[in-house]
Structures are given as C-alpha cells and as structure tokens.
Amino acid sequence: MSVDARRIAGRGAAALAQGLLLANTLLVLLPMGFMVLSSFKTTREIFQRPFGWPASPSLRNYAAVWETAHFGVYFVNSVIVTVAAMLVILVAGTLAAYALGRYRFRGNDLLYLFFLSGIMVPIRLAIIPLFILMRDLRLLDTYWSLILVYAASGLSSAIFILTGFFRALPQDLDSAARIDGAGELNILMRVMLPLVRPALAIVAVYNVIPIWNDFFFPLVFIHQDRLKTLPLGMTVFFGEFAANWGLLFAGLTLAAAPVIGLYILMSRQFIKGLTAGAVKG
Amino acid sequence: MIAYPVLSAMAYSLFRWDGIVRGGFAGAANFQRLLTQYPYSMRMVTAFWHNVWTFALTMLVQNGLGLLFAVLLAGRTWGARAYRAIFFLPVTLSLVIVGFLWQLFLNPVWGPVNKLLAVAGLAGLARPWLGDSQTALTTLILVNAWRWVGFPTIVFLAGIQAIPEEYVDAARLDGAGPGAVFRRIVLPLLAPQVNVIVILTFIGAFNWFELPYVMQGVTGEPSHTTDVLGLLFYRSAFGGVDTGNPDVGLGSAIAVVMFAVILATSGLGAVYLRRREIEG
Questions:
Q1: I want to staple B126 with a disulfide (CB 3.0 to 4.6 A). Which of A42, B87, B114, B147 is the partner?
Q2: What PROSITE patterns is this protein classified in (chain A) (predicted)?
Q3: Dist CA B83 CA A137 (whole Å)
Q4: Is A160 part of the contact surface with chain B (CB cutoff 8 Å)?
Q5: ipTM above 0.90, yes or no
Q6: What's the mean pLDDT in A184-192?
Q7: Residue A246 above 80 pLDDT?
C-alpha cells in the first residue's frame, strides 16, 4: 500500500468513526428532544403531528403536573431524603475514614474490611428482613426508613474511597499542624478536608444519583402518597394520567430536569463519580 | 445494618410464614416448594433463563458497543469529549424515567417508534414491541442498553488511554495493522476493565428489577415472557406469586438462591478472569 492510499484509508476510517459516533449521539439526544418538545404540546397534537414543532407552545402541562399530580410533594420528599442521607454518609464517612486512614490501632484492618464487605452485598436481596426490621421499629412510611438504608449502603463505598485518599496524604502534615498546637478536629477540618475535596466530590456523586433515582426501597417502605419520592410518585402519576400524553411528557421532563441540569454543569465530576470503583485513579 | 439483614434473610428462608408473621421451623421446605412445586418451580426456571438471556444479550450489545465506542473515542478523535459526555448522559437518568419514556415511544398505535418506521417506508416492521411475547424481553434489554451503554464506554476508554503509546508504536513498526494491534495489544491489556464490566453486568442482570417492573408490570407481561428473578422475588415477598398473598418464606428462599448464584458466579468469575489477566 502506498503512503497516499493508506492516508485515504485512514480518512475513510475516521469518517466511518464519526458516522457511528454521530449515530449514537442522535440515538441519545433525539428521544430526549422528543420528550421535551412533546411536553409543550397537547395530547391530540402529539398523536397527530408527533414530529412537528408545537403549534402553540404552552406551559399548561407543567402547571397541571406540579399542582394536580403532586409533583411538588414528591420533589420535596426526594430532596429531604437525599440531602439527609448524604449528610450522614459524608459526615460519618469522613470521620470513620480519617480514623482508619490516619491512625494505626488494633483492629484497624479488620474494621476496614468489615466496612468494605458492605460494598459486596447486594443489599436489595435483604429487603424482607429490612422490611420487618422497619416494621418493628415503626419506621415504615417515614423518611427515616429510606434515610437509614441509603446511609448504611452508601457508607461502605464512602469509607473505602476516603480512606484511600487520607492514607495518601503525607504524615508530615498532621505533625506540623500538631506542633502549631492544632487539635484533632482542627487538623481534620482545616488541614485534611481541603485536601480530600476531590474525593468528597466523587463520594457525593457516587451516592447522590443512585439515591435520588432509587425506586426499590420507596416501593417497599412507603405507601402514603404524601411521603412518596419522585421515582415512586411517577408510577402513581402514570397510572392516573395514562391517556394524557402531554402531561406524561411534561412529568418526565420535569423529573429528568434536575439531574440533567447538574450533569450539564459538572459532567466531568459525574462521569468520574459514577464510574468510581470501576475505573482506577 | 448490612450484615444483620443478609443473615436474617437466610434464617427466614428456613421458617414457615403466614403472611409476614413467622411460624414454626420449616427446614428446607421452602426451598423444596420453590424447586419442585407448581407454579413456583416453573416460574423460577423461566425467570432464571430470562436473567441468563439478559446477561448474554447485554454483554453482546451493550458492552460490545461500549468497546466499539471506546476504541472510536480513543486517540485524537474529533469531538471526543462532547461524545463522551453525551453517551454518558442516560446513565444519570432514573430507570423509572427511562422505562416510562420508552413505554410511550414503543406504544403500538401512537408511539413515535412505529410512526418513524412508517415514515421510513418500513411500516411492515412495526409491531407492539412490548406486547408481543416474541420481542418483549429483547426490547426491554435494548432499552436497558440504551440507558447503560455510556458506562462500559467510559470504563473501556479509561483502560485504552492508560496503555502506553510505545507499545502500539512498536507493534506498528513491526508491521501490525489496526486489527492486529487491537487483538494483540489493546484487548489483552484491557483485561482488568473487561473483568470489571463482565462482573458488574452479571450482578446487574441477576438483580434486574426496575425496568421490567415499570414497563411490563409485576408479573412480567405478556404472560411471564419478561418475568425475571427480581420480579418473582418481589412478588412472592410482597404480593404472592400467583395468588396475591405474601409468602415471606418462599421470598427469602428465592433471595438466598439469587444471592448464592450471584456470589458464586461473580466470585468464581473474578478468580478465573484474574488468572487469565496475569497469564495474558
């Protein structure tokens, strides 16, 4: 093969690659675009002109979703549960990882392995004992049932990721701070935390998206409509308004919007956070 | 909080249950019912093979495409970062959103998928994708792949980018074409990433629940053709397999079987794949 021919083949391969990548881009973006576009249409318009631009775009569907379909309630519930669980995971995870990563003591490794084993367990298979436990603690149909389960299942990975980061920080750091008279909490808050911030971001994304999106635990633990989180609320909403597609698409768009908005702002942290564990470094 | 429920799930499977009230010790009776008594045994076998098919097709389509996209995105591909971000977007979406969205898209009468086929002059291909027992499970697996494909893409891409360029250059100098470079250099060095993805896919396939539940209902419509172990487990624990009465003993037995399958296979798989990794 002459050099020229090889260059042409290379160019052909590059064009083919771009074609495939573009095809998948459309496969991802077109459904999302169709969803958003349809949310501004009436149901009749979606049925009659599915691919057309909305004739008279209106926010009527959104207003109806927020008011009559209780989306506001579900949304607030999701925020409460996610924020509370994340607080527990980040605070308790940091404290535990700091102790495990910076101090040698008897049982350190054993404790670390114990926390680690939590990552391996598919916790959903333990839903029956968890259900009975929550029933006996009278926590069914409360935010606490969800917060506790999410915190417990998130702590393992948080401790795993943070301990690694704390271990990697040089020993001189706390020695220097200690000589300057800093207390334990001060060392953690002022010296260590700023340095492990990237790890905290990874832990946050790794947990916040699965918690926000979770459907299984609310399905089992929550039965009162006013306590349902967004994913569970969606099933109620889809049952109630099955024939009103304009409303359904508005609901889907509204439910997807917060995550997509955050993703557009910080896609790099999202990708890193959600693949943490499967990708090294 | 984590060890206690797992151990109790095992203990629960050894008792008789009346609804969610524990009765006497039952020994292996729950497992015996699960494996030999109609309809449990039949449902169990059907669901099990659906999980196996889910794993196999997901490996082929989702992870195959993920590997392809990773190869295409490695190197100095134009727009690689934008593609990467777009491909990963659906991974962040709730499976409930994904499930309902595609349920509307695949609606036999009003859904845009069949309408698009009609516009393209392929109306003959249009069908009730989710209502036809021939296509329902495969359609479900493809929707799942639509949501997940960005994940293996990113993992494989990170692996490929970690391969030292000298290796590839040296092979090129020795006259290896792109195909040979991929098979002899890239693929063997990608073994750790492949292992992670195989194991995660296996665990995901055998824990599959949300998408079948949202799109096909708790019984895996049409007529159990999309029934999977996750649905069967949920039904028996919280709703009854065919009767509507919860059966905690049976549900716990299913959980124990699933747990054993996942643990044994991913454990053995990890050991086997790790060994191949070192030799390769």
A1: B114
A2: ABC_TM1
A3: 48
A4: no
A5: no
A6: 83
A7: yes
Residue with tokens 């083949």: A9
- CATH 3.20.20.30 given to domain A69-221: no
Q: Are A3 and A11 in contact (CB under 8 A)?
A: no
Does the beta-carbon distance from B112 to A20 stay under 8 Å? Answer: no
How far A171 CA sits from the closest chain B CA (Å)? 29
Reply yes or no on whether the pLDDT at B71 is more than 60. yes
How much is the pLDDT for A5? 43
pLDDT digits (tens, 9 = 90+) for B102-141: 999 999 988 999 999 988 888 888 889 999 999 999 999 9
Mean pLDDT of chain A: 86
> Where do the structural domains in chain A lie, given as residue ranges?
69-221
- Long-range contact set of residues A261-264: C-beta below 8 Å, sequence gap at least 24: A263/B89, A263/B92
B22 lies in a domain? no
What part of A 243-262 touches B (C-beta under 8 Å)? 245, 248-249, 252, 255-256, 259-260
Residue B2 lies in a domain: no
List Cβ neighbours of A220 (8 Å cut-off, separation of 6 or more).
A127, A130, A131, B238
Give me the domain span that covers residue B267.
Answer: 27-35+44-279
Q: Do the chains contact at A35 and B101, CB–CB below 8 Å?
A: yes
Q: If DSSP codes are grouped into helix, strand and coil, which group holds residue A1?
A: coil
Residue A263, pLDDT score: 92
Q: Nearest 5°: CA angle at A76, between A74 and A82?
A: 100
Distance CA B7, CA A133 (A): 13
**Overall residue count recorded for chain B in this entry:** 280
What is the rounded distance in angstroms from the CA atom of residue B107 to the CA atom of residue B242?
27
Q: How far apart are CA A180 and CA A186, in angstroms?
A: 11
Chain A hits for B146, CB-CB cut-off 8 Å, are 27-28
Please report, for the domain that includes residue B102, its CATH number. Answer: 1.10.3720.10
- For chain A, report the end-to-end CA distance as a whole number of angstroms: 41
In a domain, B15, yes or no: no
Residue B141 in contact with residue B133, Cβ under 8 Å?
Answer: no
B17 touches chain A (CB under 8 A): no
- How far apart CA B41 and CA B236 sit, in angstroms, is 13
Min Cα distance B97 → chain A (Å) is 6
Of A118, A230, A279, the CB nearest to B158: A279
CA B134 to chain A, closest CA, distance in angstroms equals: 24
pLDDT value of residue B240: 59
Chain A neighbours among B 208-267 (CB < 8 Å)? 209-210, 213-214, 233, 237-238, 248, 251-252, 255, 258-259, 262
* SS3 at position B39: coil
Q: Are B132 and B222 contacting, i.e. CB atoms less than 8 angstroms apart?
A: yes
- Specify the number of domains making up chain B: 1
H/E stretch holding B24: strand B21-25
Q: Smallest Cβ distance to B2: which of A46, A123, A231?
A: A123
Model confidence pLDDT, tens digit, residues A2-14 = 334 444 556 778 8
Q: Is the pLDDT of residue B31 over 60?
A: yes
